[in-house]
Design brief:
Blueprint (H helix, E strand, L loop, with lengths): L8 E14 L1 H12 L9 H15 L6 E6 L2 E7 H4 L3 H25 L15 E16 L2 E5 L1 H8 L5 H5 L4 E5 H7 L6 E7 L3 E9 H4 L25
Parallel strand pairs: 4-6
Antiparallel strand pairs: 1-3, 1-4, 2-3, 4-5, 6-8, 7-8
Length: 239
Amino acid sequence: MIDAPPPQTDAVARYLLLIDISGYTRFLGGVEATHGDDFRAGLPAGYRALGELLQRVVDGLSPDFELVKVEGDAVFGTATGEMLDGRGTAVIGHLGDVYRKFLERRDVLAATASDDKCTACFAIAQLDLKAVIHRGIAVRQAMGGVADLVGPAVNVAHRLLKNTVRDRIGYRPYVLMTQPAALELGLPEAGLAHRETYPDVGSIDVRILDLAEVAGIVPTSWPPPPAGSEAWPELRISG
């Protein structure tokens, strides 16, 4: 018996990008409440609409990022450090373009996606995006014929999807950029300074950028800082 060759691996500094559709779970709950689990008449329009929106995000990854996988309501992409280091203005601009295209398709679907009884489809207009960018060593490993990324940096990026950002800035689209990513992209002072803390990965310093402002859709007006805190910096993107 010939042993199978070992899986190919690499371990390099990578940018890890997660783009998550906010409101996804609530939206699907509305579709299920309307349709139940009997799809004999066909797939509800809400599922098709979500598929289109996820595909729009996937298509928007290139050329800066490549797809790792789709994780339910989130798209996981990556790029090597050497590809993006020092290109922060272009990378953030790219995310703004992804957001604009997402909104364009979302608004069309909100007006047109329907079936014989689905009223949840009109709630598509409440779907939005949030993004996390982290930089660290990640191991690409082939398992079961499928390549994936693993390692502590990958864990950190995924932890950051659950955060307190909207407690601070309200319900708006945003990019959450860790300090390692901000430094190497050349954007160490962009956005708002913020910190998240988790039992397993500890405290993580991040910068918050308003994704709508980045996309040139609306100007940003940050809420005032809490009493006793230091003044929050103005949102700015500089190369």
